[in-house]
Amino acid sequence: MRKTLFSVAMGICAVFGAAAQAQTCGGTYTVKRGESLSIIADSQYKNAGMWTVIHSGNLDQIGENPNNIRVGMKLRLRCVDGLPTGLAGGTQVAAASTQAAQPLRVAPGDASTRRKINVLTGSDFWPFTDTDMPNGGILAEVVQAAMEAADPEQGFAIHWVNDWASHHEPLLSNALLDMGFPWFKPDCAADPETYRCKNLVFSDSMFEVLMLLFVDKNRPMAFNSDADMQGKTLCRPSGYSTYIFDQHGRNWLRDGVIKLNTAASPAECFRLLTDGAVDGVVLNEFLGRGKIKELGLGDRVVVAQGQPISVDGNHMVAHKSHPNGEAFLSVFEDGLAKIKENGTYQRIIDEHMTRVWAEF
């Protein structure tokens, strides 16, 4: 009888243990022999194309080349749409709602705002800053949480100015506003005279994004080394930064390794790709995947095999002429460190990533 009761009790514990485990999402995954990021993504997220989620979440270990994984490496897998489950170190994170987001309400400032740390951003940079997304997008929510955690004595305010061209000049250069986000940082060691390097000071990165090469399935190509790009024609929309082609000793544009077509828009770049006029389109992962869905090109355009073109961090910046610029950046960085330590940062990323991948 005791043995029977013990068996029943153990069975109940097993059921409750399994239920508790099933409620967790994300966690630590140990790489096994013969695995790649796409294989892990297929087994854990049921979508091999989500290897980029694993890559971007483990850049500190993997680096820019996604093939730099080894047996026994412990990878942090973000919780995306309730997956993966059952991993050690998972958190009880409910799947975020994929319903239409409520627009962010931007409160107008008043005279007292002048005394605060005034932070500048703009909309239409999905999924990082966009008033149509929950809490203004991934990085708008990160910045809000970081500044609240920093709790500066003078307070802070976030201002939305959708004319991005005005952010560096004149809004930040004239200290009309104190800091701005999100901005990519060029390779300033290699090209210190580029505008951003010469005029801006950067915070630590808030979030790394992969710059991917999108190619036509009918004309597949891979990017494993610079030699793969020799003689290729790539498309990047007009007005988008091109320093990614000439950083870290690459010099693709300077040395004529590639030809660059600057089309009017991301959509026009994809049209040129499917028409055979260019070999690839270079966009950040989210913009590229979003445009592929919007244009109905899911059966035609894919991410090139190999590695990203680059990995770019999103930074808070201040103008070097601002007398308190570096001090204000330090306030922000202190707050960012606090929300990373207490788990708020990871929660924000996981919740937004669920919505972002649901869009694709």
Helix content: 25-40%
What proportion of the residues form beta strands (DSSP E)? 15-25%
CATH superfamily of the largest domain: Periplasmic binding protein-like II
CATH structural architecture of the largest domain: 3-Layer(aba) Sandwich
**H/E element order:** HEHHHEEHEHEHEEEEHEHEEEHH
Q: What structural category arises from helix and sheet content?
A: alpha/beta
Give the count of helical stretches. 11
Give the end-to-end Cα distance, rounded to a whole number of Å. Answer: 56 Å
CATH topology-level name of the largest domain: D-Maltodextrin-Binding Protein, domain 2
Under CATH at level 1, the class of the largest domain stands as: Alpha Beta
Largest sheet: 9 strands, mixed
Provide the gyration radius in Å: 23 Å
What's the structural domain tally? 3
Short description:
This protein is an alpha/beta fold and 360 residues long. The protein contains 11 helices and 13 strands.
Kindly describe this structure:
The protein is of the alpha/beta class and 360 residues long. The chain has 3 domains: 2-77, Membrane-bound Lytic Murein Transglycosylase D, Chain A (Roll), CATH 3.10.350.10; 111-208 and 312-359, Periplasmic binding protein-like II (D-Maltodextrin-Binding Protein, domain 2, 3-Layer(aba) Sandwich); 210-308, 3-Layer(aba) Sandwich (D-Maltodextrin-Binding Protein, domain 2). The protein is 33% helix and 19% strand. The protein contains 11 helices and 13 strands. Strands 3, 4, 5, 6, 8, 9, 10, 11 and 13 form a 9-stranded mixed β-sheet that branches. β3 (117-121), α5 (138-150) and β4 form a beta-alpha-beta unit. α2 packs across α3 and α5 (138-150) packs across α10 (325-341). The chain is globular. The termini are far apart. The model is unreliable at 1-21 (pLDDT under 50).
